[in-house]
Amino acid sequence: MGLMGRPDVQPGGFYRHVESGRRYRADRIVSDVTGHEAGRELRCYVEYTQVDDGTYPSGTPWVRDEQDFFEEFDPIDPATETVPLPIMTRTLQQEDIGYLIPILQAWVRNSDNGEILHTEIASIVSAMIASANGECDDRTYIVAESFTDGVVGVVGMRAPEQRMMPFVEKPNATVELINLFVRPDQRGTGVGRRLNIALEQAAFNHGATDVVVGSGPRYAESHSFYDAMGYKRKGVIESMYGLGRNAQVWRKTIVEDETGALQSPSLSTA
Questions:
Q1: What's this model's pTM, rounded to 2 decimal places?
Q2: How far apart are CA 74 and CA 23, in angstroms?
Q3: Helix 97-107 vs helix 118-132: angle between axes, to the nearest 10 degrees?
Q4: In degrees to the nearest 10, what's the CA dihedral of 192, 193, 196, 202?
Q5: pLDDT, tens digit, 9 for 90 and up, residues 166-188
Q6: Which of 103, 118, 211, 222 is deepest in the core (most CB within 10 A)?
């Protein structure tokens, strides 16, 4: 049900705080009537620091905050405005695989005819399962999880494969970013950025200072993402994905600021 006098306020809806402009997702109605004269209360899952970015501080994935929705909030129309899902990033677990298979099927396709590449997907899933089960130590996967929609994205890292080595300056301190996939309906909402930040932090924690990534023509529309994240184009690997299908290669140096934290991707240099 909605609030008395505000039928537009519903659990699961998104609302903008009139004064600050910040956006919130409503969880459930606590009560219809409070001690306030104007009072209608709604309990929300809200971002602890930057609501619109969908981020949460480490160790505080879901923060509950009671807000007075009677006059302070306006509903957001999902037909005219996309609201990023509140997400957290964490290490891949076995139970995440079921969420990831449809995401892989959406993206891992023949670029000529659009057919799903089942063999390639099976190889990726096999590596993910082995990583989740602790059966291999050469790959690490991180997922982005929405409170409401489950896992909506994934990214992995490994030691750079041999074909990437001409673009590696520090062989013992470089990881290769692999398998960055975001659920199609969540593209452009910041999920990819969150995954990239989480991967850089994980790489830094494991002693890496550089990240390299290669991407072919199948994912050409995503190449600008790596540019935006601070990766610098270093060259191409010719015919890496078949005759004439070159791989663009980027490299980024992870930069630590004076506080000991990683800088924003847009501020990092390569």
A1: 0.69
A2: 9
A3: 150
A4: -120
A5: 999 999 999 999 999 999 988 88
A6: 211
CATH topology of domain 87-253: Aminopeptidase (3.40.630)
Distance CA 73, CA 256 (A): 39
What gap in Å lies between CA 270 and CA 253, rounded to an integer?
A: 5
User: pLDDT tens for residues 197-227?
Assistant: 999 999 999 899 999 999 998 998 889 999 9
End-to-end alpha-carbon separation of the chain, Å? 52
By C-alpha distance, which of 87, 93, 105, 121 is closest to 192? 87
152 φ/ψ angles, rounded to the nearest 5 degrees: -120, 5
> Domain segments of the chain: what residues?
14-75, 87-253
Residue 196's region, left for phi above 0, alpha for psi from -120 to 50, else beta, is: alpha
Model confidence over 26-68: pLDDT tens digits? Answer: 655 554 444 444 444 444 433 333 334 444 333 333 334 444 5
Q: What is the DSSP letter of 119?
A: H
Output the pLDDT for position 85: 62
Tokens matching residue 44: 């929300």
- Cα–Cα dist 193/215, whole Å: 17
